[in-house]
Amino acid sequence: MDRKLIITIFIAGFLGSTIGVVGTLGAQKIFFSESPTHQGVIKKEEGPVIPVGEFTVNLRGGAFLKTAIALEGMNEKSEAAITAKDAFIKDRINTVLSSKTLEDMQPEVREDLKFELINQLNEVTGNQVQSIFFLSFVYQ
Length: 140
Description:
It is found in: Cell membrane. This protein is an alpha+beta fold. Helix content is about 45%, strand content about 20%. It is built from four helices and three strands; from the N terminus they run αββαααβ. The protein has helices spanning about 5-30, 80-85, 85-100, 110-125; strands at about 50-60, 65-75, 130-140. Helix 3 (about 85-100) packs antiparallel against helix 4. The chain is elongated. The model is unreliable at about 35-40 (pLDDT under 50).
C-alpha cells in the first residue's frame, strides 16, 4: 500500500473516533445533566435541615446499626410538615432500617438505602423530603 493512503486512513480513523467521543460526551452533558437523580428525586432548592435523631436497630441476620439522621426539606414550609410528622417519620425509618441486612449497609449500596428512605418518608410527609443525611453510621 501507498504510504500516503495508510496515513490518510489512520488520520480519518483517528478523527472519526475523536468526533464520536466528543459527540457522545456532549450529548450526555446536554441530555443528562439536568435529569432527575435516582428514582425521580429532584433537588429543587436548599431547604431546611431537620435533625430526626439517633437510631439503633437490629438488622436481619443478627447485626446491628447505629446511625444519626437529618432530613432536608423541600423549602421553608416543609420544616413544619416534617416536624409535625416526627413520630411517623421515626417509625418509618426504624421499619426500613430493620428490614435490611449487613450487606445493605455497605458504602457501595448506601445510596440505594438513602433513596428508599426518601421515598418512604415522602409517603408520610406528602413529598416534603428532598434529601437525607447520615450524620453517623456504625454497623457491626
